[in-house]
Structure formats: C-alpha cells, structure tokens
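Q: Can someone sanity-check these two? First one:
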Amino acid sequence: MRWGDMRESENVEDRTGAGGGGFPLGGGIKLGGGAMILVIIASLIFGVNPLEILGLLGGGGPVPQQSEPAPGYGPQTASPPATPEKTHSKKILASTEDVWGAVFQAMGKRYDPPKLVLFRGGVNSACGTASTAVGPFYCAGDRTLYLDTAFFDELQNRFKAPGDFAQAYVIAHEVGHHVQTLLGTMSQFEAQSQRTDERGRNALSVRLELQADCYAGVWGFFAQKSNLLDPGDMEEGLRAAAAVGDDQIQKRSRGYVAPESFTHGSAQQRTRWFKSGFDSGDLRNCNTFETRSL
C-alpha cells in the first residue's frame, strides 16, 4: 500500500505498555499459557469455539456487551514507543474514516468513527476481557476495535497471509462491524440470535461476518480509487480472507471440517464477499442476510 503519506487517525489508544500476560478474568485471575492450551484442546474435543468457553462469542468479530465495564477499563497512562505496525494501523483507520464518512454522507447519514485500542497480551473492554488468543475484535458496547499488534505476526507466519494490505483487511473487517452497528444490523442480529438455537446462531453469525468482509471490500474499492493500493494488494486481501476461513482454521486445528460449527464462513465464502464489495464499492451488494446462497 502507498500509505507513507496517509494521515494518522487520532481515534487510537495505545495500551501496549500496560502489560497483560495471560488471560485476565474477573477478580484479577489470569489464565496462563498452559491453561489456555487446555481450553483450546477442550474446544476441539467438543467442537465449540474456545471463546465460548471463556465467556466471549468469538475472535475476529463483535463481542457481546456486558452491563458494566471490566475492572481497569479505560485509558492507560503509559506512552509506548511507536512501531511500524502501530503507525500503519493508525493510517488504515484514518482511511476507513475518510471512506465511510463519504459513504454515509452520500446516504444522508453521519458517520461516527470507532476508536481503535492497540494492546499486547490482554485487554479490558466494555464487553469483558480478552487476550491475544481472541484475535482482533469489535465491541459494540463501547464502539471500539481491539487489536493486539502481535496478530500481524500470526497473520504472516501462521496463516501465511503476509503484506500490509492483508493487515489493512483485518482492520477494515472490524470497522465493517462498526458500520453494522451504526446501520442497526448488529442490534437486529443480536435480537434474532436470542430467538434461535446454537446452529441458528452460528448461521446468523456467518452472515454477519461475511457482510463485514464485504464492507471491508467496499473500503478497498475506494482506497483503490484514491490510488492508495499497489499492484498485488488485492491478492493480499484475498489470501488473508481465505486464510481465516473457518474450514481452513478447522483443517489446521482439528484435521477435519465441520460446516455446522462455522461462525465466520468458509475461505471461499469470505473471499467471495470481500471481492463483491471490492469490485462494486456498493453496500447494496453486501446484503448477506437476504441471499439464499452464500
């Protein structure tokens, strides 16, 4: 990406200097690496998302709001040093602010941008507590994106999806959940989820996540029109979308695929919807809740 001259968003809070090894739970209890491994093994045996065991819905997507913030929630006083990953994240968020501000204005609406919190190890949010294992997530409770910058290393090394546009896709996807909140889709999703069983909730979650992928593609469309993309950036985004498909993750972790347990969509679905938004730049092409075939 040609992000060297892009502005940096001011809606970023850097908590990477606040520490946070392990997974902080209520009352100050933390799960260390060994306990986290047990949680992951249990999730594979029983075929459930490990975040459900930890009291969260899932990484890479919205986390349900709690009635009150967890202890320690709020701005941190530390001033950690800048890194290329942090600078890039701030610039990508700024680009999403510009794009969605213009899109909402064209719809006669006002775009209220989300905040981005950068952390390392663990973080407190209005939706509860999370560790690096959760991955990037969006909390509708405080309208904030949470990102452990170590995930970019995971994206490159574990998921084999390197590149700055792959990282941008991750942020743009979470911003897509914020767009869903502003448009009322998130509240509709939560209401419908309460009226169905686990399989039904999973199916709704897949549609929610694929729409966020499509919204990430819409941002990419306008970023391309603004001459911010380099040759090959589109392919980086598609590789990242495919790498975090439920089928690919399950193959790596379980050795087999269980479509009924999908919560984010397959690699094919995620690339399809990202490309749909990228090719058109039109939100009307992102209505995953109305189409029969995903």
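And here is the second, same format, sequence then tokens:
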Amino acid sequence: MIANGPVAVRPVAPRKNASRPTPAAGNLPMLDFTLTPELEASEPPEARGLARDAVRLMISHYTTDTLTHTQFHAFPDYLTAGDVVVINTSGTLNAALAAQRAGGQALELHLSTHLPGDLWVVEVRQPDKGSTAPFYTATAGETLTLPAGATLTLHAPHATLPGGRVRLWLASLHLPAPLHAYLTEHGSPIHYNYVPQSWPNSYYQTVYATEPGSAEMPSAGRAFTPEIITRLVAQGVQVAPLLLHTGVASLEDHEPPYEEYYRVPAETARLVNAAREAGQRVVAVGTTVVRALETVADRQGAVHPGAGFTDLIVTPERGLRVANAMLTGLHEPRASHLAMLAALAGYAHLRHTYAEAVHERYLWHEFGDLHLILP
C-alpha cells in the first residue's frame, strides 16, 4: 500500500491471544523500533496533493487489538452522540530565529516556553540540521544577537544532561517590538532535518487555533477541517476546547520536564465530566490535551477548571484519569510521548499498532498520518 495514495477501509484481525491490557500497571519498557527515512513526512500533505483531512488514519481498539485503516475524513464515523472531543486551540509561533555569538558564529534559537517574570526556556542549536551534536555549548551569562537588534541573554541551564550536555536554557529576551509582531517579521516555524524545506506558518496551524503560543504545532489536530467539526456537532459529539502552549520536542533521555502554560475552561471541564459520568468516550486530540486534562483532574478523574504551568509527565505507572480515547500522531522510537500512550493502551497494544504502521508505510511526524486509539 502506498503511503500517500488512496486508502481503503480494511479491518485487521487482532493478534492471537489478545487480552484486555491493564494500562496503569507495571513499569512498561519504552517502545523501540526502526523508523526509516522514507516513513518521515518531509512536507505537508497539501504538497503531496492531499487535502488536510485525506491523511491516513489507523483506528485501534486497545481492549481487543483490532485495527482498521482509513483516511481522516472518516473520523466522525467512529464516534457517537454524547462523546466529547477535546482540542487544543493553541496557535504555533514563528519560534525559530537566527542568532549570532559575539564572535560571529551563526546559531539557531528555538523559543520554547514563556515563563512568569518574562523569562524564557530556549533551545540553542548549531545551524547544521544534520549535525550529530545539534546543541550549542553555551556559557551562562552569554548574550546572543538576534535580527533587528534584538538580544537574548542566557542565564542558567534548565537542566544538565548526562555528559554535561545542556539542551534548554533559562534566558531573557530583549526585543525592539512586541513579541508576536517581531516573530511574524523575523522568525519562522521550527522544523527539523526530516523537513528540509521551510514552509509558511499557515501550514503549522490547526483550523481551530485561537491564541498563538506554541513553539511547535499541536499536530494531532492538523487534519481537522471546518466540515469535520460541523459533522461532529451535527451528530451530537461535543467539541470542547482547552489551551496548552507546547514547547520544543520530546524530552531527551534523563531530561526533567519543563513547564508549559495551560488553561482549562469551566465549560470544558463540565462537558468532560458529564461524558465520563454517562459512560461516553472522552477523546483527547494529542498529548498536549492529555497533559492539560490530567493536570486539573483529581484522583477520581473529575476535571476542574484551572490555569497555570504544568510539568506533568504521564507514565503507565501513574496512569490516565480522564481520557479513555486519544487521537495522536505517530511518535519516534523511544519518544517520551510513547509512555503516555502506554498509560492509555498498554505497551503490547502499542507494539502491535506500531508494527502495523511501519508495515503499511504510514508517515511519521507533524505532517504525517494519525492514529485513533479507542477502547
């Protein structure tokens, strides 16, 4: 089957001896597999001649291990009246900026999280995207020059990784213009070596984004269109918004979590709690939605409105308290996001579904295909 060609709906039989997993039990091993370069989506689906909602969608049921292959425009067909789909309305910033050391060395700055006190968590990279040592070895107190006379002062490592490496820094940003105006003129969306060409910011926005603030696109929702949202509402599925401004990339090995700003409205909390009480599905669109919901949930899974900063990491040991279904992209081998998916579906189910995704040549990353995980 060709990854970007027509996709037929094809149910896949469960594995032999499949059994209901216990998502919150045990210390599950991190999922590891081989991801070859041809499975990395190197451009938006529109550049491949596809509509946003024509990317492929794998539906898996973690209680039975059954799989179905279709396209995202069929997403509403798998939900029923009373289900709640929770979306993240954060918009994507032009968070990548050219930077320069005092001696003239060119660097690339990635803004991650805007903290209280006007501090930033930032990532400073070598400009060679194929480098085996992508992170610049900076010095506390160093000031970098940015376009149009702006500067960035590095204060201290956010954390020091094994071997003394530093990926993220606490820093102060000094701009000649308001943040969003400055980034619109001088920044660009963050993209990594598997996306060789720079694409306009519009390709990194979901159709329901309302408030810019994410360093990287909350990409699980990219395939939604106004028509799909209309279909969901028309069939009695509630679409509930929240906000979480996501930072840069998945955590490195042994890296502590960094803070991200979230806001969960009272109406969203009410809709989610009502669906849970009625035994309906709560479908989290992406890992950012799961993180926000889990941050404001009590031990019984009741969601409360709230806003602030969260550094919560969801693991199988902790378990999920709110969502019982999830729409997500396909994550890299050993990515920290996979621990959250294992908390929902169990490691055995993930191993089954990821083997199928590799076999069927699904595409990975923010411009790739999607996975709907249902009970």
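A (reply): Looked at the second one. The two ends are 27 Å apart (CA to CA). The chain is about 15% helix and 25% strand.
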